[in-house]
Amino acid sequence: MDAVRLQASLTALLLLATPPSTSPSAAGRSWLERYDLQHPTHLVRLPRALVEVSGLAAWDATHLLAHNDERPTLFVVGTEDGRIVREIRLGHRNRDGDYEDLALDGRHGFLAESDGTLLDFTLDDTSTTIPYRRQFGLPGGICEVESLALAVSGPGLVVACKRVRGLRSPGGLTLFRWQRRRSYDLRPSVRVPWAAFGGRGEAGRFAASGMVRTPDGTGWLIVDGPNARVAELSGDGRVIRVSALPRRLLPQTEGITFGVDGTLYLASEGHYGLAVLAAYAPVRP
Fold it and tell me: How far apart are CA 150 and CA 138, in angstroms?
């Protein structure tokens, strides 16, 4: 067998031996493409205690963790009926604040305030009051935080700035990384120009209102509640897709998470009524 034919045979064997990648880019299908966002599979109204629902995280196969934006209280909510089955207060003194998003890594959780301060806590299956450790925010409140998610490479978290304060406009969406024992890295982890989201200049600003890491850990979905849309972002800051949300059903989307079965959940605050939880089962190709 000549050298060219031998090389071709070895290449073919390697391709057969290499398992296919399951990432959206390799499959030619983004995460957002898997869901029909205009038609929820299931829609429920949330109890009045969650009328200002702001963050979501997966708890188990039939429940989510949710919170309001004024007090550090977590609610375990049924995905089928929206019923609250448990309340968990962070700390014995339930201090008022501006709590914007929630990230959960197993039973280890983080609740973000608008200045980037994080409440660091560990959950169990029964307690209704648990302690937390306060991790201080970004210096000088330079970033108005409404979005928090697990990082895509290595440990830690990322926050997305809804607005940047005290600095010249960055001209795009800015993400900062937080790591335990290192606090915030003040060099932006990711910066995405507004034009990448389909807008023009500051008028096309993407107002990040909530985010979640994708199930394969390669990127994030980020909600723009005021403009009723959601973007899929790769770990290196590429905008993969931007999809519209049904404003009539979800007038102010703040919470987003994936269920353990791949269902996508979105929560909208209640402007003139109760808040809404929408479930989207993956659409088969």
Answer: 17
Q: Give which of 277, 227, 231, 223 is closest to 254, Cα–Cα.
A: 223
- Parallel, antiparallel, or unpaired for β 264-268 and 239-244? unpaired
Tens of pLDDT, residue by residue over 203-215, are: 678 999 999 999 9
Please, what are the domains in the chain?
30-280 (2.120.10.30)
Task: Quick: pLDDT tens for 147-203.
Answer: 999 999 888 999 999 887 765 566 889 999 998 877 898 888 888 999 999 876 566
Rounded CA gap, 65 and 10, in Å?
50
What are 118's two structure tokens?
């994080």
Q: Residue by residue, what is the 3-state secondary structure of the chain?
A: CCHHHHHHHHHHHHHHHCCCCCCHHHHCCCCHHHCCCCCCCEEEECCHHHCCEEEEEEEECCEEEEEECCCCEEEEEECCCCCEEEEEEECCCCCCCCEEEEEEECCEEEEEECCCCEEEEECCCCCCEECCEEECCCHHHCEEEEEEEECCCCCCEEEEEEEECCCCCCCEEEEEEEECCCEEEEEEEEEEEHHHHCCCHHHHCCCEEEEEECCCCCEEEEEECCCCEEEEEECCCCEEEEEECCCCCCCCEEEEEECCCCCEEEEECCCCCCCEEEEECCCCC
Q: What are phi and psi of 272, to 5 degrees?
A: -125, 25
CA distance 111 to 101: 6
How far apart are the C-alpha atoms of 177 and 228, rounded to whole Å? 26
CA angle, residues 109, 113, 119, in degrees to nearest 5: 35
Of 67, 39, 42, whose CA–CA distance to 53 is shortest? 67
Q: pTM here? A: 0.87
Nearest-angstrom CA–CA distance, 42 and 72 = 28
